[in-house]
Every structure is written in structure tokens, then in C-alpha cells.
Amino acid sequence: MTTVLEPLTSASPLAPTRDPRDFVTPDQWEKLTGLLMRDYPFDSVMAQRVLGQGIAYLITAMECRGQGLGLGPGSIVDIGVHMMILDTVAYAEFCQKYNGGHFLHHVPDVAMKVDGSVARTAQQLARHGFLVDEPLWDADSSKCTPCRPGEDGH
Question: Which stretches of sequence are listed as region Disordered (predicted)?
Fold first, then answer.
């Protein structure tokens, strides 16, 4: 199942206004992009794209906490999310600061949902003011996400 994302225009109320870099320190951004380049076949541009979308996803998931939307990234964006989570001290501080003191848990399922949730999640990012890197989201929109529906976690 492929779901097409609605295009955003500069006149749209959904136009991007938030930068994922604003949610981590410059040192943390550099460290995480360096780790992505170390652990994956990414150059610095791809590492920054993946990290940026991962942060945008986490912030959006935190802002949607309690709504039961079943948000989840596809496998490419999930790499950036996991890199954030693996630096546990910084991630706990990130959750404390941006999730009202609540830890956003990682709650994966084995099976992939095939329900359009990746495309809907990308649309939520746009609604929350983030630029959606459509190729990173479209790559997985037919497979969707292994994140559990309705959870207040990733």
C-alpha cells in the first residue's frame, strides 16, 4: 500500500517552521551524525537527514502523547530515532525536557503494520511544523512500521 503525502506550500498553515537541530545541542547533533556515519553507510548529508527526521518524529510523538494515533516511522527514519535512544543519558534528558518529564519508551512489535501509519506519521510531522523529507518516508510507506498502535511510546 502506497500513500501519497500531501505537498506543502509556503502559504500552507502546515509549512515547515521548526528545525530539528533546535532540540539538541550542537555537540549532540555532531556526535549523533558522527555515530550514524560510523555505523551506517551514510555520508554527512544523509546522516543529518536521517537524524533530523528522527528528532522531528520523536518531538511529534511526544506532542501527540495520549492521543492513541499509532504513530511510527519507517525503517530509514527509525535509524535516526534509535541513534537518539542509544545515547541513554542524553535521551532521558531529551524526554524530560520535551515530554513533560515522561520517558518515551521504545515498544517495537515483530510484525510490520500495513496500515498507512508511516504516511500518516509524516503528515503529523508536517502538521507539527517540521519539514518532511519525503524520500525517507516514502521508501517505507508500503511496509509501514513495527511500532505498536496506540502506545505512548516508539
Answer: 1-22
